[in-house]
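Let's see one such:

===
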Amino acid sequence: MIKFILMVNKQGQTRLAQYYEFLSVRERVTLEGELIRKCLSRSESQCSFVEYRDYRVVYRRYASLYFIVGIDNDEDCNELAILEFIHTLASYSGRI
C-alpha cells in the first residue's frame, strides 16, 4: 500500500508531498530530507528500489524531477507495479 508520494527537483526542493498516513510535520521534514539526500546521491546505474526505515521506496527520475513513492515493507508489494505507476504519474504531469 502506498504511504507517500514525493516530487522533488534536482536541487532537493520538494515540489509535491502527499501522505496517506499521519506523520507530524517534524517527522515529514526529517523523512523528506533524509530520503531526498539518499535518492539524489545514487547513480543512474543503481537500482531504483531502496529500503528506508519501515518503508520500501521506489523512485524514478524524469527530466529534472524525481518521483519518489514510499510503500509498505511487506513481501506482497510489487515494486515494478509502483514503477509503472510512477511512469503513468509522470506522463500525466507532462514530464515525458
